[in-house]
Amino acid sequence: MKKLAIIISHPIQYYAPWFRHLADSADFVIKVFYLWNFGVTQQVDTGFQEAFQWDIPLLTGYDYEFVPNVSSNPGTHHFWGLQNPSLVAQVKAYSPDAVLLMNYNYASLYHFLGSWNTRHAPLLFRGDSHRLLAPTGLKAWARRQFISLIYRRFAACLYVGKANYNYFRYHGIATNHLFFSPHSVDNDRFFAHAQTAKEQAVIWKKELGIPDDHAVILFAGKFEAQKRPLDLLRAFLQAKLSRVSLLFVGSGLLEKDLKSEAAEHENIYFAPFQNQTLMPRTYAVADLVVLPSHSETWGLIINEAMCLARPVITSTHVGCTQDLVHPHQNGLVFSAGDVPALCSCLQEALTDRQRLQQWGENSRNIISHYSYTQATQGLCQALNQIV
After folding, report:
1. pLDDT at residue 55, rounded to an integer
2. Do 155 and 317 meet the contact criterion of CB atoms below 8 Å apart?
3. 285 with 218: CB under 8 angstroms?
4. What is the CA radius of gyration of the chain?
């Protein structure tokens, strides 16, 4: 059987279940090489501004090893956060038939790209970048040339969605070197917990103090500038919706600003960071999930929300929008940063509660086609071509 080495920054709650799926169902053998141990030990997340570790298994069901990271400030928040001098040697010792990189813009990975002999094992890349917020000028031109040069090292690239496909094409990747491997979450876990989550959400809603007869608009994630939670707060206040509450779940740098601006208004609630086992309940308490980000490579919380049959609103700068949000079928789309447009979307979505529920059912149908099965099919097609 073919052997695939996968290099990734650290254990990630969305990818570990996929690796288990690959180990169980793929017609090749995998080994994952981690460059940092975040997620499996208690560490501070710079976005959430608090320490935690994920409460679901991240290292079971597949072969892996950690590559020692000698960075004095380890992490993915800066270029030098991943420094792994033994990476090439450890991957070479595995004798893979191909190597899949999940990112490249760190010191260790640039060194790997420059050192690896692609004649012995070709390289694959799976990323989620896009140009929905396209830079211009000389610096942008130079960056395009540089990134296009990097991509020449890869025998094939896996694209996660339409915006990502266009990004690869912009950087010169030929269509016959591109394979669809959609961004996915552990759909089966969310599907399996849906009914229990709904029952838990009824209790949690009361604990939060949200009136029983109120519909709930949910923002879940990091309270940071690029995710634009303040836009949602202001749009909600402008919308003046009857029997509707707004719930912010998470933490981050903007938490103080959000709570200060919300303090004088009714029907706005806050809940702390919720770990993975509580996320089904988090989505189940919502009638509508909103991701108003000004810059978001994909937005996997939309996948998760759709698994719980929730309608969604996203901005035009959210990477998954073109793939997952079908206007007036399972949600709405607004121009990023346009608070009045978001206000109008909230008003339109909540004028017909029965239609909103149908949008949620449509979400669940749509997301069934964005699973680890489809992601694996694209990877298999790429491997069959290059190996």
Report:
1. 86
2. no
3. yes
4. 21
* 331 Rama class: left (phi>0) / alpha (psi -120 to 50) / beta: left
Beta bridge partners of 364: none
Q: What is the DSSP string of 125-178?
A: EEE----TT---SHHHHHHHHHHHHHHTT-SEEEE-SHHHHHHHHHTT--GGGE
Query: In the chain, what are the domain boundaries?
Result: 2-185+370-386, 187-367
pLDDT, mean of residues 59-72: 97
Cβ proximity of 108 and 116 under 8 Å: no
Tracing tokens 């990271």 back to the chain, one arrives at 69
Question: Architecture of domain 187-367 in CATH?
Answer: 3-Layer(aba) Sandwich (3.40)
Name the residue among 334, 338, 254 with its Cα closest to residue 290: 334
Question: Is pLDDT of 328 > 90?
Answer: yes
pLDDT bucket at 206, cuts 50 / 70 / 90: very high
Whether 298 has a pLDDT exceeding 90, the answer reads yes
Q: Angle, to 10 degrees, between the axis of helix 353-367 and the axis of helix 300-307?
A: 110
Pull the structure tokens for residue 235.
Answer: 């749009």
Please state, in angstroms and as integers, the Cα–Cα distance from residue 104 to each residue in 74, 150, 200, 343, following that order: 16, 9, 40, 38
> pLDDT-derived band of residue 135, with 50, 70 and 90 as boundaries?
confident
Q: Give the torsion sign (CA, 46, 108, 183, 335).
A: positive
Residue 271: what pLDDT? 97
Q: Does domain 2-185+370-386 have CATH number 3.40.50.2000?
A: yes
If one counts every other C-beta atom within 10 angstroms of the C-beta of residue 199, the result is 11
Angle at 41 between CA 221 and CA 257, to 5 degrees: 30
d(CA 33, CA 18): 15
Going by pLDDT thresholds of 50, 70 and 90, the confidence category of residue 44 is confident
Say what the pTM is.
0.94
- For 6-21, give the DSSP string: EEESS--TTTHHHHHH
pLDDT > 70: what percent of the chain? 100
Residues near 88 by beta carbon (within 8 Å), at least 6 away in sequence: 111, 112, 115, 116
CA distance 360 to 54: 27
